[in-house]
Design a protein that fits this description.
541 residues; alpha+beta; Jelly Rolls; 3 domains; ten-stranded mixed sheet; five-stranded mixed sheet; 15 strands
Length: 541
């Protein structure tokens, strides 16, 4: 594989809009780092590998439908869920202001990036084989962990994470401001696709810069999959992924910053991702902590080819992604019902990688051709998200994709009542893999049950409010909440029957896991509901 040629100092200053010694350099990148290299890889339209797959559904809610977020998602679910993903185009009048575009933040607030080598997302050798067969400098790898809960044994977990990162992951890149990242992203795309007369200093929303030819979404898509499936050059890009909004800020206005009636409309909207996870009807509202990336949104600042690899959401939650501005984001989705089929297909075609890392898909570092999945009988759907649009992923729906250029998106999770059975399935899978959880499923189930009892009691007293009536629909004989509780009770009874008869059953203290999360020392199963205590140690369960 041909390596990218490094620029001399003079070339870098001439060709790179950021210069040879960038203001916001990260110590992990040397003077010959990616942002200082001359872009020598080029578009090969003849070798395009664009997959031919069906489109995911697109929905256009009316203003009235758009007012109740979770009700609208419930309405479209029967049509959308069997595609895994769908796109929602808000009413034309919905245009929330974006605080990230404010001049001071745009030019001065910095965020970390990771470096993705696109040509190795699918076609790479296992690290053990690679080390034996080729002498190639290995990078310091980081930011591949998917667990958001703090481990009980942090030192042990750090070692395990380090071992995992040494095998698979992305190198840490430079810190950027949004202004600098846009300049580099535009520079890369201009060089790669041979664009001419690009205005590198344009700002988002600037309508004065001259229009120029740019590759279409389909042309970029064909080139992306050529790089992934049939690489001829090394292609590396930056991605500002999993950025905590508590640090950089959210792209949506917050209630604490309301200044006008217009901003209040968007700050309080259910489609504002700062509000979405804990909307009435989402069982995540019974989680007390602000789990980053689950209940608190993450930002994603992308450039051309920056990728999110095949994965499902933690605990098989729903997710909602909003593209604040910039070039489109191309998505691929597989319905949750076919998640095992995707996993089997990837194991079949990438046996060496899975042999070295059996739970490779948990690491979010492996891309795989939709065309191959389709040939294996796995249904794959595609959608192109444009600025101002939402994409929903449904429970256990594998999804992946890439960016067509500079853009900024924000995402968070949600858990309507219908998710509870999916969530229970997720924690059972985690236990079988000895994988840590991100939240307590039983705590959410208990919270939902208590709210259901409250609503049912009030209805019996004649208080038939819309909120109470929604709960009545899930608490009936065939309601989603009833089914989830019955399934959990049956599961618990079966486990109790497996315990030795001489063990004494005790009532769990109310503060058992009030201050410390309790999990099985062996499989990390959450112990909010019940636990077996080790006699010789009061801290091991």
């Amino acid at each position: 594989m041909e390596q990218l040629k490094l620029a001399t100092n003079s070339d870098a200053k001439e060709d790179n809009p950021l210069g040879n010694k960038p203001k916001n350099s990260n110590a992990l990148e040397s003077s010959d780092s990616l942002r200082n290299r001359k872009i020598s890889a080029r578009w090969d339209p003849v070798g395009a590998c664009r997959p031919i797959i069906e489109e995911a559904p697109v929905f256009y809610p009316t203003i009235e439908e758009f007012e109740d977020t979770l009700s609208y998602i419930a309405k479209i679910r029967p049509l959308a869920e069997h595609h895994g993903i769908c796109r929602i185009v808000p009413p034309a009048c919905w245009a929330p202001p974006c605080p990230l575009k404010e001049k001071d933040l745009w030019e001065n607030a910095e965020f970390p990036t990771r470096i993705q080598q696109i040509d190795l997302l699918q076609n790479r050798e296992p690290m053990k084989k690679k080390c034996r067969g080729r002498k190639r400098k290995r990078r310091r790898l980081s930011r591949t962990g998917t667990c958001r809960r703090k481990p009980a044994n942090a030192a042990s977990h750090a070692k395990n994470a380090s071992d995992s990162e040494e095998k698979f992951g992305f190198q840490s890149g430079s810190d950027f401001t949004l202004k600098d990242f846009q300049q580099y992203a535009d520079y890369f795309k201009e060089c790669y696709f041979g664009l001419k007369d690009a205005d590198r200093d344009r700002t988002v929303g600037d309508s004065n810069h001259q229009k120029r030819w740019e590759p279409s979404e389909e042309e970029i898509e064909g080139e992306y999959w050529r790089i992934v499936e049939q690489p001829s050059d090394e292609v590396e890009v930056y991605y500002g992924a999993d950025l905590e909004t508590g640090a950089l800020g959210s792209g949506f206005p917050k209630a604490s910053s309301i200044t006008t009636s217009d901003s209040a409309q968007y700050a309080l909207s259910g489609w504002n991702l700062n509000n979405f996870a804990r909307l009435p009807g989402s069982v995540l509202s019974y989680e007390g902590s602000d789990i980053s990336g689950v209940l608190v949104p993450w930002l994603y600042v992308g450039m051309c080819f920056s990728s999110f690899c095949w994965h499902v959401e933690d605990h098989h939650l729903y997710s909602l992604n909003y593209l604040h501005w910039g070039d489109p984001k191309v998505w691929y989705g597989v319905p949750g019902s076919h998640a095992p089929a995707l996993e089997n297909a990837m194991r079949k075609h990438l046996p060496d990688l899975f042999e070295e890392q059996p739970h490779l898909l948990n690491e979010l570092v492996t891309q795989f051709s939709p065309s191959i999945l389709k040939s294996e009988g796995v249904p794959v759907y595609r959608t192109v998200q444009h600025s101002g649009e939402f994409v929903i992923t449904f429970p256990r729906a594998y999804h992946s994709g890439f960016n067509c250029g500079f853009n900024c998106a924000e995402a968070v999770n949600v858990a309507p009542i219908d998710w509870l059975m999916h969530g229970q399935n997720a924690v059972e899978i985690y236990s079988s893999q000895c994988r840590k959880t991100s939240l307590s499923h039983d705590k959410l189930l208990f919270g939902s049950a208590l709210e259901g009892v409250r609503a049912s009691t009030e209805i019996a007293l004649g208080k038939e409010s819309p909120k109470n009536l929604k709960w009545r629909s899930v608490c009936g004989k065939d309601g989603d909440l009833t089914k989830a509780i019955k399934a959990r009770i049956k599961m618990e009874d079966e486990r109790l029957d497996c315990l030795p008869t001489h063990l004494k059953l005790l009532k769990m203290n109310s503060d058992f896991d009030l201050y410390t999360e309790r999990e099985c020392f062996s499989c990390f199963y959450d112990l909010h509901l019940s636990a077996v205590e080790k006699i010789c140690s009061a801290t091991i369960y």
